[in-house]
Amino acid sequence: MKQSIQWVRSVIFLGLIYFNLMVVGIVFLPWALVSRSGAFAAAHTWCRSTMWLAGWMVGIKTEVRGTPPTGEVIVAAKHQSFLDIIMIYASLPRGKFIMKKELIYTPVIGIYGLRMGCVPVDRGKRGAAIRKMVAQVVAVADHPSRKIPERFHGRTRKCGRNAIRRIAGRVWILRPPKMIRLVQNPLHPESAFVDEDALVVGDDLDELGVPDGYKRVRLILPVGSELRPQNWQVVRRTAVFELPPQLDLCPNAVLVQPAGWAAWFEAHWEYYLDCHSDNPPARPVDLRRAFGEAIEDGTAAFIGSGFASLRGMKAGVSEVGWIGGNKAEVEEGIRWCRAKAHEIGAKSVRFDADDTDPFLWSALHKLADPIEVFETFDLS
Q: How far is residue 201 CA from its own chain's centroid?
């Protein structure tokens, strides 16, 4: 019942904000046509009224921390929803957006965007669009000759970063501080996982809580990361090794035949279950689809009662899939992977080892130092 009421309130909210867009657009239009100040005033009125409605009607609270810029800067924001556009614009005195050209023909938004000096771009033209965008942004700037010292916060894509450098010196990369993205893994239905690729410096992971319906949140970061949370528990370390291919004798290795795949994946499932006892997985309906879609015939073997596999090769690096068994079987599994990589012409072989698998962890550390080490953090 509660969800139904919230759904109805959300629909009413959406209707109201678009109705309000038309009202504000019509009321402010005469002023906007004779002065850009009228266009800016209309945009601020609509954005602030929308944020107030969001808090009052549907419980979406917004917060701006710090002092927003007032001069000629580029705000390179992480665009996640329509709400971040509204929040940013409400905080800036005379904002101008870089927008896709199709929005020019949108009622109200198009005419106000042009009056405010927003820059329409054809995103399909890539390099040409960036060059045109640079020229237009400089042309519509209130103070185009002002030079501001360069400063970057966070990360941007390379092409976008270069375009920004050509537009102005100073860049603000803004992002809602609590907008940390969580993802699901069907293998671990009781856990939510932080999307570490979406994190930026300044995210406070220690303010994150466990969402309803989950028992824990997991996060993987490189050792020494400045994003490292203080109040989470480290439950696993994963080391990445790169070894040269090497011919070797593996007397106990038997290639998996078509009739043996079910047993091979069953052995792997038991190994995976044992290594992830702190985060119990749910058994997949199709083990091959969950664990072995990249493993082709001839790149997996039984090593006694254990197993080993290669997942494929990219840029000359052969990636090891899974190695399991007792101490001797794991060591032979490593040799088999290196020999198989030599056979297919790989330049190097990459292994991942968790410290929850002591045999593989120890055997690989005896052969080389890891090239990378990651930590898995748990919040429960």
A: 14
